[in-house]
């Protein structure tokens, strides 16, 4: 019997717009224009004879009928993608991972050789971004962010814990002693623009609220702040997960035993149902082992 199937492009446009809540975001993910997505959604609405979206400012909201339809076709499209990855020639061998730049540079990239050695048939395509998960136009296969947070249709796997504490180069510590937090008044404190209160929070926890350092320097990326600490420019609030190798090899030192500021754990976020696909499952298992180690 001939199947009554709507056009696949119309289904893809509808699913992306519904999942992302935006025609523009759907267009970015699919690599087409906003108008093309709108046209394909309109084609599907005509084909189904059902209105799919209500417009609310810049976002679109599913009608009840369209929400029920999405619940059926979303998993079906996921199964098509999984079957293509499993049976298609060379399909699924590239795993797209999206991670924050500092995490990628200082933790993930140095360990990727071990993943490739364990899974030589898989290639990781690493993309860096600090955008929130829900703002990503094309999230890829695995997204690494802080958490754990809950997102509709997404599975979250925490894999790495972290705290923050002051660190500096051994040379800086030897030039200007750091016996207790009060000695920080003779030093330069390094800040990251996106985390402006880290030093204030640590000084308050250390009983030195209001301390005025000799100087301060703000950089726009965390990896630049850590590099400045490695270069002996000042002290940074170091995330323990990302500086563990530097501490172990003596490139950085932690002059104070505490306090340590709590931080969110690193988590892997995957679209629900995809965590069992072989490439994704392999990466999730590997990164959990690396985080536990």
TrEMBL record:
Key word Transcription regulation present: yes
Stretches assigned to the HTH lysR-type domain: 6-63
GO biological process terms on file: DNA-templated transcription
Pfam families linked: HTH_1, LysR_substrate
Keywords, in A-Z order: DNA-binding, Transcription, Transcription regulation
Keyword Transcription attributed: yes
InterPro entries for this protein: LysR-type_TF_proteobact-type, LysR_HTH_N, LysR_subst-bd, WH-like_DNA-bd_sf, WH_DNA-bd_sf
GO molecular function: DNA-binding transcription factor activity; sequence-specific DNA binding
Family of this protein: Belongs to the LysR transcriptional regulatory family.
NCBIfam families documented for this protein: PRK11139.1
Name of this protein: Transcriptional regulator
């Amino acid at each position: 019997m001939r199947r009554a199937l709507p056009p696949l492009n119309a289904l893809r446009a509808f699913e992306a717009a519904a999942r992302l809540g935006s025609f523009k975001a759907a267009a970015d993910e699919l690599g087409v224009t906003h108008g093309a997505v709108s046209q394909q959604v309109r084609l599907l609405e005509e084909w189904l004879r059902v209105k799919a979206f209500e417009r609310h400012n810049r976002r679109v909201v599913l009608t009840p009928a369209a929400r029920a339809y999405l619940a059926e076709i979303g998993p079906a499209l996921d199964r098509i993608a999984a079957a293509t990855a499993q049976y298609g020639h060379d399909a699924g061998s590239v795993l797209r991972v999206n991670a924050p730049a500092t995490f990628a540079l200082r933790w993930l990239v140095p360990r990727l050789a071990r993943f490739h050695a364990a899974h030589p048939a898989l290639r990781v395509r690493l993309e860096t971004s600090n955008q929130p998960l829900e703002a990503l136009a094309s999230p890829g296969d695995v997204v690494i962010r802080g958490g754990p947070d809950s997102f509709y249709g997404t599975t979250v796997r925490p894999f790495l814990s972290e705290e923050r504490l002051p660190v500096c180069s051994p040379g800086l510590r030897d030039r200007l002693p750091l016996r207790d937090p009060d000695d920080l008044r003779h030093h330069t404190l390094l800040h990251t623009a996106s985390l402006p209160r880290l030093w204030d929070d640590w000084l308050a926890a250390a009983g030195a609220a209001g301390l005025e350092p000799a100087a301060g320097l703000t950089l726009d990326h965390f990896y630049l702040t850590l590099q400045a600490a490695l270069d002996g420019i000042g002290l940074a609030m170091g995330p323990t997960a990302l500086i563990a190798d530097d501490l172990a090899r003596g490139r950085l030192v932690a002059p104070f035993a505490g306090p340590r500021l709590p931080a969110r754990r690193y988590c892997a976020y995957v679209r629900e149902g995809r965590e069992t696909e072989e490439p994704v499952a392999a990466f999730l298992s590997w990164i959990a082992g690396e985080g536990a180690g």
